[in-house]
Amino acid sequence: MKHFLSAGELSRDAALSLFSLAADLKNGWKSGRRPTPLTGRTFALIFEKPSLRTRVTFEVGVNQLGGRAVYLAGQEIGLGTRESVPDVARNLSRWVDGICARVFSHATIDALATNATVPVINMLSDFEHPCQAVADYFTLWERGVDFAKVRIAWVGDGNNVCHSIVLLGAALGADLRVACPPGYEPDPAVMAAARARGGSVTLTTEPDDAVRGADVVYTDVWTSMGQEAEKATRQEAFARYQVNGPLLNFAKSSALVMHCLPAHRGEEITDDVLDGPRSVALDQAENRLHAQKAIIAALTEGLS
Ligand code: CP
Ligand code: NVA
Question: What pTM value is reported for the model?
């Protein structure tokens, strides 16, 4: 891997080795075995949008590996306004060992990668959230989930997180069932790419159909960052797509509930479900740290 821009870049084997490395780094950190392969190395973290989990886990992750992180607000550096995106990538490449970016447009991530001479990591764009997907499948992997047998229901918006979950899930062999209101489906190119990766991905407008017999039920906000002007229309369109107790009754009794967070409680998910015994949302959040350390380590292998 030179960059990590899309969950569609990871093969099944590459994903499985990231999970093993993430487990090793997680267990190592907890037991005091703490390798520091990034000693003397610096990563730039560019944020055009707000973040809690991603910012903290990237900063802490780089620190845990012995490196340093420099936070850059998109507005402060004027990404694409004060200076062109290619020029920002060329300049940063002279000073830092990796560029991580959370951007509005996926084209910005592509432009950073095209022009950088150091690894670029997508920390969320309008099209994908690949680090989230690695952490989420790592969360299932460490619970012993058999990807060839797992049925995953995505309920809600066919958004950036959905795209990454579908692309990586398909490579892992999962049976993915996506339920979205008409007009809010995942990008057809993502569905086609997922099917080309060998996965079973089906689309329905009926949440019950997607959730029936599911091992995992995943949801995300109805209004993503950058879509705030559409909030009212979306609340109406998604009203039938709330993950709540009655919907969860269609899933297996052992089903896990996933959410990338932040949650809009009472909209896409109810408190009792998010805080209930099936929810692994906080495990997902914890695993962002270790999964991303694995991604960074894989991208920088051979640096020092
Ligand atoms: N899940 C996630 O990326 O959270 P943040 O937006 O808080 O970083
Ligand atoms: N779909 C959400 C995910 C946040 C982590 C958004 O893009 O705002």
Answer: 0.98
